[in-house]
Amino acid sequence: MNKKSTGSYYTPAYLASFISKRVLSHFRNRSRLSILEPSVGDGAFISELELEKEININLTALDINEVELKTASIKWSRKTGSFVQTDFLEYLSSKQYSAVIGNPPYVKKNILTPKQIELSKKIHTNENLTEASVKNIWTTFLVKANTLLANNGVLAFVLPSELLQVKFAEEIREYLKNQFERIEVFTFNDLMFDCKGQDTIVLFAYKKSDNKGEFFANITSKEALEKNRFVLRNNELLVSSKVKWTHHFLTSEELTFIENLKQGLRTVNDYTNSKPGIVTAANKFFIIDTETEKKYNLSKYTKPIIQKGQFVNGRVVFSNEDIQQLEDNKRPTKLLQLNDNDKISKKLREYLSLGELEEIPQRYKCKIRNNWYVIPNISEIPEAFFFKRSHLYPKLLKNNSNAFVTDSAYKVGMRNGFDLNSFIYSFYNTLTLLLSELDGRYYGGGVLELIPSEFKKLPVPYVEINENQFNQFKTKFESKSNIEQILNRNDFNILNSTLGINKEGIQRLTQIRNKLKMKRLRDYANA
């Protein structure tokens, strides 16, 4: 089994040690404990539990992989242990455990077997959760683990940061709040180990607690974790609101300040129609460079297209000259646009055969087309585009070219009564960029993403400007050293005229945005 299909990402010893010790410290007045490890992997937690001398631990360890289970069992020398080869989703037990600990696998729904999907749905439904929460096997491990806990039990899992920020996990967060009296979430400044291709968190959930609530700590280094140099802080406003838990380091005052400013502002969806760009199903095949176009005589079948956001860095207007520059730099800018009634030339057939050799017709989105090579929904050239993923700041550009755009961006068109130039100018203010950080989600490496619903709900304080003002804005934007130069120049005009925010308020927004951005970019410790 490979890592993708099994979702196995092993836990480093220092993290397994921290989790094990914290769980055991909760039970220091007990002489016996029953602990379940539902996905034992290489046995990192077992090695740590083996060191415990004062508490008699009755261990149940599961894994779907026989080899790993045997390897882990060697690390447990006591007689009070049971090692079972099984899929945790199928595990049946009448026993209630003192603690469930581990690092659940990370396997997306589309890789699960039909049986696993049905089992997951049943587990979620039994806990009054919707099927929408079945997006990855870790959510089902979390839900099922809770059902196996004793009334005063503790759950401790290494999890992806998806729990704190993605839409489908909202329901899981509410479930945890209802099931546990105390929740502790530890986030980390860095990708402290190879886990699930994204940020990692540690969750502790206590069925019973004298000090109730949801508590958060950000760990700045491995040493800080090992020496317990952290402070757990309660953030009731964050948890009671719709703000994503990744932003637990914002104070209640900061969250209230932002929320008050948002009230009454129109959103992107009020000003625009937006929808995803073109889905080719195989960008490397359907988007070609000039050399390939010439080699196979494909110019009559191609249209210009922007493949990804890095091709438009630093711009606020995209022109045909920009497309030409990309072509000169040998970037792929030609979309292969074929129709069902096109006559297939010899050279075109030769190129299509290359795709067939790569089994592109077998890809799901190609398979459901009448002809696998005919891309649907290629219609109007967008007025503007917003790239859903970004690094230092979100990118919204006016399209003055004949180019289409892939689904790396959303096509943007203005609603009646609103002006595109004014909308783009208004978008680049500290409040809107702050809310992009707050409402979006981020991944390892500091990539910020806004899914369609998050982009549409983004508040924008709208200011009307004329053509001359927009041209000045464009010139300044494209000669900037950083986005802060644009925000410093335009914030007062946009935010004071629409919301009455003074310079002190703008400075406060800037500080909050910097805090959010620096956390995303892994520099929060130095803020």
Provide an overview of this structure.
This protein is 38% helix and 20% strand. It is α/β, with parallel strands linked by helices. Strand 20 (441-443) and strand 21 form a beta hairpin. Helix 2 (13-26) packs across helix 3, helix 5 (114-126) crosses helix 6 (137-147) and helix 19 packs parallel to helix 23. The model is unreliable at 1-7 and 523-527 (pLDDT under 50).
Beta-strand segment tally: 21
Major sheet summary line? 9 strands, mixed
Overall outline: globular
Helical region count?
A: 23
Can you tag this structure with a few keywords?
527 residues, alpha/beta, nine-stranded mixed β-sheet, five-stranded mixed β-sheet, 23 helices, 38% helix, globular, disordered N terminus, disordered C terminus
Short description:
By secondary structure, this protein is of the alpha/beta class.
Topology diagram in text:
Blueprint: H1 3-6, H2 13-26, E1 32-37, H3 44-50, E2 56-63, H4 66-73, E3 81-85, E4 97-102, H5 114-126, H6 137-147, E5 149-160, H7 162-165, H8 170-179, E6 182-188, E7 200-206, E8 213-219, H9 222-226, E9 233-234, H10 236-240, H11 252-262, H12 268-271, E10 272-276, H13 283-286, E11 287-288, H14 290-295, E12 302-306, E13 317-319, H15 320-328, E14 334-336, H16 346-357, H17 364-367, E15 384-387, E16 389-390, E17 395-400, E18 404-405, E19 409-414, H18 420-427, H19 430-439, E20 441-443, E21 447-449, H20 452-456, H21 467-478, H22 483-499, H23 503-520
Parallel strand pairs: 1-2, 1-4, 2-3, 4-5, 6-8, 12-18, 13-17
Antiparallel strand pairs: 5-7, 6-7, 8-9, 10-19, 11-14, 12-14, 15-17, 15-19, 16-21, 20-21
Helix pairs in contact: 2-3, 5-6, 19-23
